[in-house]
Amino acid sequence: MTIRVLIADDQALMRAGFRALIEYAPDLEVAGEAGTGRAALEIARQTRPDVVLMDIRMPDLDGLAATKLITADEDLAEVRVLILTTFEIDEYVFQALRAGASGFLGKGAEPAELLAAIRTVARGDALLSAAATRSLIARFLAHPDHGRPADPRRLALLTEREREVLILVAAGLSNDEIAEHLVVSPATAKTHVNRAMTKLGARDRAQLVVAAYESGLVQPSRP
Q1: What gap in Å lies between CA 101 and CA 82, rounded to an integer?
Q2: Torsional sign, CA 22, 58, 121, 221
Q3: pTM of the predicted model, to two decimals?
Q4: Domains, the chain, ranges and CATH?
Q5: Residue 154: what pLDDT?
């Protein structure tokens, strides 16, 4: 199955580099290019890509706002957004995840890392750069002005086992690692993860991490 990718970056040279890399991979293809966030939204609606490779800083409509609009569009429910970031501003990462992004990757990543990241996000079964993501989310949430207060009522929808699984997902564990930790089969672990996603309205594991922090189930550590 070919993964169709929309490239959204305001720098033509960057887009050309991403295009060359993506088209070189036998299982990936470029669905379109956009130089602004608004163009990314419109082209996503036209082409329905599997993954949008989204830069944060773009004119007209920035990548965060474009991500929020894409993930809020019911007609684009199957579209995943991979945010490109320089890690210069940590809160961008959490804002991106809260906006509905499925993961993020530094622009300094190796070509093979980018291709793997696109495939991972397309599957919707893992959060990218788990250790870095946890650190950045925790650091941002530890700030007194991080945004919405924790809402433990969200957890009322989950069973005790699903809460336990949610904690492990927020810790960056894969389904196989969760299965080993809980002494269950990987299929059972995946079922628990999927049920937690459904009950919390999460698009993917990235959104489960956000839910774990926002519900207060996982407490951010001070840097």
Answers
A1: 6
A2: positive
A3: 0.72
A4: 3-124 (3.40.50.2300), 149-214 (1.10.10.10)
A5: 77
